[in-house]
Each structure stands twice: as structure tokens, then as C-alpha cells.
Amino acid sequence: MKHIARKRFGQHFLTDDAIIHAIVDAIAPLPGQAVVEIGPGLAALTQPLVERLGHLTVIEIDRDLAAQLRQHPHLSVIESDVLNVHFSQLLAAMGSAWPQGQAADATASAPAVARKLRVVGNLPYNISTPILFHLLTHVDVVADQHFMLQKEVIDRMVAAPCTSDYSRLSVMLQWRYQMHNVLFVPPASFEPPPRVDSAVVRMVPWDEPPVLKVQTLATVVQVAFSQRRKILRNTLGKWLDEHQFEGDFDLQRRAEEVPVEEYVRLAQSLASATD
Ligand code: SAM
Questions:
Q1: What range does the domain containing 113 cover?
Q2: Which of 11, 71, 120, 166 could form a disulfide with 5 if both were Cys (CB 3.0 to 4.6 A apart)?
Q3: The whole model's pTM is what?
Q4: Is 236's pLDDT higher than 60?
């Protein structure tokens, strides 16, 4: 029976074979890797992925689609909202190992550590940011992530300081992941076509991330970008005064002029003050 796309689940199904294969090539899956796909839908990516992997775990919220996917012999189907999936427990349950010495070129910079997840998906755009932040809380069990998202969101994720796309999202992800925009995808590649351009991002967690309290960084960045056109003295400066910060930080700049490393150092020096 033909599936009618459900708007509330952000359903736009990939139909362009060239794009589907380009995405799978970018992921470069190898047999035996512990891969989880978020939102498999009608299996456009799922099928070529499972052909290369041998087995795949998928997370799908739509009951009808999950029922169809369960017919596939090489899929483990988790029928759930991805925001309720505990990825660390999932990896333990999968009991699968990252094959030693088989890192693909595309993931050569990923740590060659056993038992880490590769997470992929053409994400529902209405909840893509909550999904990214949910996965950030499980980053320790993740080898890499490849996601199709609204291009505009990826532009913000990978943006450099002093550009108009550099924002809260850039800082909150760049401190923890190395990220690249790997592919542009036009609306015509989907059925029904979305109203926006899409792209695919590769996210590889840094090997030795800075030690900090994510909540402190999140607060600092939120205050700083609350009025991005203003000089920080009038926004972050006031907040730092309230928290008796006496360290060195140049407040004669705008939020978009401060590199990620400086936000990180500020969060680290504030950690005890906001305990
Ligand atoms: N992967 C398919 C493709 O590329 O054609 C479908 C992609 S479609 C943009 C997003 C998929 O995510 C849909 O199958 C939708 O039902 C599913 N989805 C939406 N919200 C979800 C959620 N909270 N948790 C898990 N899956 C979700």
C-alpha cells in the first residue's frame, strides 16, 4: 500500500538514486560496523546501507513504516521517538564492534576505538536541532555522524567566526565535533520536495575534547548571542559582572567575533563560579 507522507513527522523521502548513492559513498559503511539509522522511512538509504553492512539498526517513530521495516530480515527496528533513545545503552545492547584496521577513508580521522556507533540519517527537519543536542549527550559512544539537514542549518553548524552564519549552534557543536558539509541536495531529490535546500554534514567527535561543563558553555553562548549585533559589554559583560567574573575577556567585540576556543576557556574558568 502506498505510504502517504506525514507532515508531522517531517517526511520527505529521497527518490534520487544518484544522491542516495553519493550519501552512502560519503558514509562509506563497512561490513560489521555498528551503524544506527535515524528515520529510515521507506528505506531509500536503508537498503543500500544494509547491503554493504550486512545488518543495520534503525529508529523510526512512524508505526506503519516501522511495521514495514520489520519485514526486512537484516534490520533491527526500534519503533520510538529518537529523542527517547539512550544511545549508550543501545550500543551496549547491539554488542557489535568497530572492525579493527578497517576504517574507511571518510572516517579516517575517527578514533579507531572498538564498540562505537556510526549514526546516520536524513533527519526530520522540524526536530533536527533537538536531535543534534540529544546526541551530544551521548557523544562518548559515537564514532561519527552523517546527517542530511536543511542546508541553512548546516551552514550555521560549520560557520567560522566573523561570518553571518556563526551562531550559538556553531559554538555548541564545534567545540565537540569536527564538521564538514559534504554534499548539496536540491529539493527535487525528494518526494514530496521540501521548500528548502538540503545538505549532508559529517560530524566526527574530537579525540581529546576540552573538559568543561556543557551547561556553563550553553549559558555563556546563549547570553552572548542573545543580541548578536551588540557589543558584548552590554550583554555578556553584565552577566559576567553578576557572576563576579574577574578574568581576562575582551568584551569590546560582538558575539560573532569570538572564536570557539575563547568561549570554551571562558566556560572553563566560570565552571566553579556557577556551581
Ligand atoms: N530516510 C528516509 C529517506 O531518506 O527517504 C526518510 C527521511 S524523512 C526526512 C524523516 C524520517 O524520520 C521519516 O521516516 C519519519 O517518520 C522519521 N521520524 C520523524 N520524527 C522522528 C522521531 N522523532 N524519531 C524517529 N524517527 C522520526
A1: 7-205
A2: 11
A3: 0.92
A4: yes
